[in-house]
């Protein structure tokens, strides 16, 4: 069974003005579609094609050597973007986590603001293309980043970090360049308006 592009869980313009409509159209319809298509191409004729993509990327050591890079990049891209869309929603004033997740973030990082600084730092200092993540790692929250389309789910040996992502931000230029050009820090500030903390809380509850 081939992978398919999941529809956005909201309209293309739902994240305005934090993330503009045109960026969402190109990012979802072109970039994410290309990861899906290229992952399917690499999986043609393989019995691993039936595996959910989040599982496949934990087993890159088992894929044929000549497919490993293509799947690292494209199954990784499909998994990361499929998650990313669900982690955002229409902007809200004073958008922040509540309940158990809010407590866990404060306990782990000192305060919500200290967490935001750490996450933005990880995203800003990821040279070139990649992602910053809030992950559950051995029962604890941690901020990490990965290059290209690597996911913490791929594990230390491949991604350089491990963990279960509960929040992630795409810092490839294709995620922000139309609206923010070279100003990645401005995009990251705006990202906080559209984080879907209800979804992050669900992922936290499932991972802890
Ligand atoms: Mn992207």
Any overview of this molecule?
It is globular, with a radius of gyration of 17 Å. The mean pLDDT is 97. With 208 residues, the chain is mainly alpha-helical. Strand 1 and strand 2 form a beta hairpin. It contains nine helices and three strands. The chain has a three-stranded antiparallel sheet with strand order 2-1-3, sandwiched between helices. The protein binds manganese (II) ion (MN).
Summarize, please.
This protein is mainly alpha-helical. The chain is 50% helix and 11% strand. Strands 2-1-3 form a 3-stranded antiparallel sheet, with helices on both faces.
Provide keyphrases for this structure.
single chain, 208 residues, mainly alpha, 9 helices, binds manganese (II) ion
Note poorly predicted spans.
Answer: none
Helical percentage: 40-55%
Question: Please, how many helices?
Answer: 9
As a percent range, the share of strand residues is 5-15%
- Mean of all residue-level pLDDT scores: 97
Distinct bound molecules? manganese (II) ion
Strand order of the largest sheet: 2-1-3
Tell me how many strands there are. Answer: 3
Structural class label: mainly alpha
Give the helices and strands, then pairings:
Elements: H1 21-43, H2 53-56, H3 65-86, H4 99-109, H5 112-124, E1 130-137, E2 140-147, H6 156-159, E3 164-170, H7 177-180, H8 184-194, H9 197-207
Antiparallel strand pairs: 1-2, 1-3
Helix pairs in contact: 1-3, 4-5, 5-8
The structure holds manganese (II) ion (MN).
Manganese (II) ion is lined by residues 27, 31, 81, 170, 172, 174-175.
């Amino acid at each position: 069974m081939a992978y398919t592009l999941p529809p956005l869980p909201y309209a293309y313009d739902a994240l305005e003005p934090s993330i503009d409509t045109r960026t969402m159209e190109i990012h979802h319809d072109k970039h994410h579609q290309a990861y899906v298509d290229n992952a399917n191409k690499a999986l043609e004729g393989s019995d691993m094609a039936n595996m959910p993509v989040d599982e496949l990327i934990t087993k890159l050591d088992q894929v044929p050597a000549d497919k490993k890079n293509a799947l690292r990049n494209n199954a990784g891209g499909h998994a990361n973007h499929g998650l990313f869309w669900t982690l955002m929603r229409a902007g809200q004033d004073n958008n922040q986590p509540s309940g158990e997740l809010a407590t866990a973030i404060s306990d782990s990082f000192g305060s919500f603001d200290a967490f935001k600084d750490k996450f933005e730092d990880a995203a800003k200092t990821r040279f070139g293309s990649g992602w910053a993540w809030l992950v559950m790692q051995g029962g604890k929250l941690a901020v990490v980043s990965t290059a290209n389309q690597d996911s913490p789910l791929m594990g230390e040996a491949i991604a350089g970090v491990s963990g279960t992502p509960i929040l992630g931000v795409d810092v490839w230029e294709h995620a922000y360049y139309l609206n923010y050009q070279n100003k990645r820090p401005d995009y990251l500030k705006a990202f906080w308006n559209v984080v879907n903390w209800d979804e992050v809380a669900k992922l936290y509850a499932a991972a802890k």
